[in-house]
Amino acid sequence: MKLRPVSTPPVKPLVSSGISDAAGADPFGTARLRDSTLRAWRDSPTRLIEDTNVERDLRVGAYRDRLFVELAQNAADAAMAQGTPGRIRVSLVDRELRFANTGAPLDARGVASLASLRASGKTGDTVGRFGVGFAAVRTVSDAPSVVSTSGGVLFSAEKTRAAAGIQGDVPVLRLPWPVEATVPEGFDTEVRLPLRDDVDGQALLDQLADDIGDLLLALPWLAEADVDGRVWTRRSHDDVVEIRGPGKETRWLTHRGDVVWAVPVDEHGLPQPLEEDVLHAPTPTDDGLSLPARLLATVPVEPSRRRALPGAGLTAALKKAAAEYVQLVRMLPAEQRFALVPTPGFPKSTVDAQLRDEVIASLSAEPWLSTQDGRDVAGRQAKVLDVDVEGLPELIADVVPGLLKGAAPASVLKAVSVQVVSVEEVLETLTGTSREPSWWHDVYAALARVVESHALASERLDGLPVPLSDGRTLPGARGCLLVEGSAELLELLSDVDIPGLRLVHPAASHPLLERLGAKHADARELLNADQLRDAVERSVEDVRSGLDGTTLAGAVLRLVADCGDDAPRWVGALALPATDTWRRADELVLPNSPLLDVFDEEVFDEDGALDVLDEDFAEDWPAGTLKAAGVLDSFALVVDDEPREPDHDLPDEEAWWDSLPEPPSTLVAVRDLDLVGDDAWPAALRLLAARPETWHALRTPNGHARWWIAQYAVLGGLAPNEWRLPDADLAGLYDEVPDLGLSTDLLETAGVRTGLTLSTVDEAQDVLHRLADPERRITPGLAARAYDAVVESGFEVHEPGGLRAADGSVVGGALILDVPWVAGALEPHEYVVAPADPDRLSYLLDEPLASSEEAEVISEGEYAPWADLPALKLVADQLGVRLPEGGVLVHDPLTVRIQGAEHDVQWWSDGRLHAADTSEGLARAFAWAADRWPDRHLITALLDDPSPRTLLS
Fold it and tell me: Domains along the chain?
């Protein structure tokens, strides 16, 4: 609730201007003060001017905004003089600002001080002993008064002018007059300031309400402040000062010695560092500070009390303050002390720069930082990690002594000479350290948290020491294998001499190591270890040089058994015992494999491509494990999801690769097809078809297996692509495949022909030779299709030595029919039919085109436009065909000379169309002109009989 301002009677002068004070009515001897001052002005007019100027300077300059600061200081001094915490009350009564306080009342010495612009009556520890502050009242009032339980005084510009006999600006605070007034109940003194018209009294009260909390902190002898009914209180508990006001409560942790340091804290005592402040001497100055805590110190100040006075006194005071700053810091728990380290930045003032340097020096030289082992050390004795890794300093405290508790930015601690230790330096120190594996696991867990939060780049941990299962601790996780606690695998591999295989101790295993390059060491991951792979790939060489391969073979096969079919392909390089020696696993065949009956016997000779696995060794392991390791039981596959080159050791792989229109996107092929015996191919094909994997490979379009078997397998003494299936329309060109007990589907998959698709240049050349073989009876239609197939294959072939002419006969040379009219002038054995691409066939066979043969129309013809031929107009109408442009030369008969002989033909073209005057001749010429050549026979029939029956039947 807002309190009503206390009403007090107005101030009345004891004497009027120009009348002497009555005896006993002037307890403070103001008449003597006035007489002394007036005499001085009369004796020295310049003194009046000087006093006027000094007061004006204080009013408009130094004290322009320090009214309440100065009044509060006076109230605090009065409370201290009385020895009882004081109270103040500020109110506005009828345009008069009133400032009441408890404490020692006004005395003669105080009045003399008030009336002096150059001296103060304060002594000892009072706040204002270095300056004069009452002049601040002149910033708002021309008639200030001070009333107390001991009496009162009034200052007045009007009365001063009258007493001095001058007009204009005068020094108001030089001439005091006694007044009678009643001090508000509960208070000892009250300053009353009638406000000038240009002063906003309520604004003054609001300004004080904003600043009162800071004043109560700076002035410990003030316990309560009432500002226009709003009450603030100051309470101290141990080292914490609580200031409570309307809707707000602040707490300050304070250290009091020769100076006072204070830092805001929350309700839990956690520091809330200041971002910026000013020097309090002990009330605010204009000297900005950037320290996290507030300094309240008795330092030399300028007369204006706005700035510290430079000099030896200030330097000594700041050194003392800096030394005590460390004590404030030590009042906080160890983990919170970092908050009071000044952060780097530009100083706010000259005082700030000097004080910051002193504070930093003290924090560097004096113990205040708490280490992991419980000691307090100075900044220059402390160490901190360059990355905040929670939990790590506790673990490595005995390895890296001096590490601090808590976390703070390295840039902050660097200012107080704390040694910043990099993670790399810590790792170097830890290298070679003997610790339990579980301790290392805790270190990894701490580091993992900062790596996952991206506070620490994983690359910085490349040298992280790792304890191995063999008792060694080596730097770097890359290349290590995480066994995941499998004692069986550890025991298994411990008997194998595999250089470079680094197995992490199971108790130290942590996901961080995997992120740093370690790999899981379950069976599958162990098999993928580069060191194990190297050992496997050189195992045959090692055994043949005298080393025992049994241990490595047993270890790897155990791992393969755990992985099943997922074992990597390179396991096939593992040395295993054969009949008389040791061979790669993928060069061995199981003793009971059907491949023994399929492959050529020479394959298993001493220097052959394959050998048979030792029977006793084979009995010790499941067949599935041996097959997963690469030992052959049936045909093996070669799989490559991203083939780049023909480098898979497949027979004739480069030729197959070149036969493809584009490189294969994936490769699924069958290995060792070239090892099959010539007489064993039917059995080999049945074996390939029996397994889904090999059957799929055999059926893959354009796949290597299908391509190779079609050309190089042997069925009935020939390659599969040299036979045809019984129902294939290739009779005469290819012979029917003999009965080998194979299904039609398998025969077709193996390459036995169903059509004329030609996959290689050899196949294309073979077709030309078959066409040129006079022993073969080949129909003209099949011959034409065969020539088209050769052309469409795109392969470059050479002359076969003979040609299959249009009548099916074999001739030594012939024209390649590229235009139809020439066929009417020549015999069928004189030309070859190739409808698809005559030009290409002419090039391949090196035979001329029919159109290039010299020919001449020697009969006379009569030109007839198409539109003038009624019979053809009727045919065009029946077929829905528009009549072509132009016309035709009609002959009766049409005679052509070609190859030195004359022939009567039905039609011809030599740049112009010619037709015999017959239905057949006109029909062919019209069909060619109308681009309806396939309809030539229908057009002929319609010309002979244009009835609907001819068209529709």
Answer: 12-231 (3.30.565), 274-366 (no CATH), 568-755 (no CATH), 756-853 (no CATH), 854-953 (no CATH)
